[in-house]
Amino acid sequence: MLTGREWRILALLFVSSLLNYVDRSTLSVGAVDIQRELGLTTYQLGLLLSAFFMTYATSQLFMVAGWFVDRYDVRTVFATGFFIWSLATGVTGIAQSFVMIYALRLLLGMGESIAFPSYSRILAMQYPEHHRGLANAIVDAGTKTGPALGTLIGGLLMARFGWRVFFLALGLLSMLWLIPWFRWMPRSTKADRREERADQVGISEILTKRSAWFSAFALFCSNYFWYFLITWLPAYLEKERHFSMSKMAVFGSMSYLAIASSTMVSGWATDRLIARGGSPTRVRKTATGVGLTLSTIILPVVVVRDESVAMALLMAACLSYGIFAPNLFAMTQTMAGPRAAGKWTGFQNGFGNLAGVAAPAVTGWVVQQTGQFYSAFLVAAVMALSAALLYVFGVGPIRQAEFRVRASARVA
Fold it and tell me: What pTM was computed for the model?
């Protein structure tokens, strides 16, 4: 059973991940209005949707974010990143040009790059293997609930008040989260931090591990599917299904909530199986392979004319993706262990989030060239299936990797 302190930490992390994804997804919700007001082409809109991931991915890919998280007090590092991304969101509400919004999206990516290395380090240090599925599910549920609320509330509020007011309010109100974070997040002692720095795992050593590379390639493929959903699903529903903004907000949010609910069930179920003696390798890889393979149900959505059937298929695809989601970082935290969790997660998440650059830009180009979304949905389905194969057959056993112990750590 989780203690009260552990639940409190998870509650704070849930809210932070929710706000993280509200902030990064609201541009998609207001995409049509922003494009119209600023006179942007579809390709320029695709560039704006992908700009966030340029700095978000590279800051993690080159292990800048992971280095900060592993070396300094994760509480302070995380709070700094949170402040930066909230500020970037708020200022977007007064931006007057493509260039200014593009720059703010780059700043947003820099701030949010701290998030997942921080989550992994905290969970790897605070939660044992048989609790990590649920712990990661709670954090991941925030990443899915965020786009759901951003799409639903953002869509409804933007329809009434405009996109600028929503961005300003969101950025300013998000900063209130910092108050309970500084009050409740447990602090590590100076002695603990000295010991952690002395026993750090080097970047080069992490890159010698096969699972580090295959987990990165697999995350790229699975993230392509996810970022296709959060960047272009609202526009698809409006442009090709001819939904009103309010109707789009409802069905878009339902899709993301379907993933969040499935994530919680899967995280709880996989933890129970492992607690009863199941192998982490078998349990987590099975959930991952099944969930990603069934996510390909999304392809018929774009060809089925009946609206009710199409939306049912969309929900089924999202429920399937949720089976995979909580096991992603649970596997990484086990393989990396507390010593390498920040850097390993940063590298994996940085490489994987290059899909955030690719998915919006490729989709925008494909839709502009073909005039429809079929090919874009096909690519997303293929990427989900590729991710399933990479996780199941490419990533090695789900157990902690063997790292060298540094001399300074042995002396201590």
Answer: 0.77
